[in-house]
Amino acid sequence: MDVRTFEIFLFEVAKKYSLELLKEYKFIENRRFRFDYAFTGIKLALEIEGGIYVGGRHVRGVGYTRDVVKYNYAMVRNWKVLRVTTEQIRKNKHDKEPLTYFIERVIKQLLNEV
Q1: How far, CA to CA in Å, does 69 sit from each of 7, 34, 36, 74?
Q2: What is the C-alpha separation between 76 and 72, in angstroms, rounded?
Q3: Positive or negative, the Cα torsion across 34, 80, 47, 19?
Q4: CA angle (67 as vertex; 65, 72 as ends), nearest 5
Q5: 29: which of 8, 73, 76, 98 lies 20 to 30 Å off by Cα?
Q6: Please, where are the H alpha helices in the chain?
Q7: In contact, 21 and 3? CB cutoff 8 Å
Q8: What CA–CA distance (Å, rounded) separates 18 from 38?
């Protein structure tokens, strides 16, 4: 699955469960932090961590530290953050328990809490 197909899947899941899904969602007004995708009604964020094998921003010191700070801010605001890699997206159908399965499972669990 490519990233675009994965995005289509996310919007289909949002529609299936009547959830709002926003891209590049800014979850703190006075900070620049944004989630790649956010199911705002259940406070579930999805972060795609790219470039992990080529020394991308998410695995270098400053970028990694900023991500940790962002995830800590998310946590104290009661957000759940699913972190995925582009490799997981590409291999989705080949995994024993595909990424798409985990996303729907977490959504179902959170909907039961709401």
Answers
A1: 25, 12, 16, 9
A2: 6
A3: negative
A4: 95
A5: 8
A6: 3-16, 61-76, 86-90, 99-113
A7: no
A8: 14
Using one digit for the tens of pLDDT, what is the confidence trace for 60-100? 567 778 889 999 999 999 999 998 888 888 876 656 668 88
Nearest by Cα to 21 from 49, 4, 3, 41? 41
Sole residue written with tokens 């959830």: 19
Instruction: Give the bridge partners for 80, in sequence order.
Output: 44
Q: Could you write out the DSSP letters of every residue in 31-56?
A: S--EEEEEEGGGTEEEEEE--TTTT-
**3-108 architecture in CATH?**
3-Layer(aba) Sandwich (3.40)
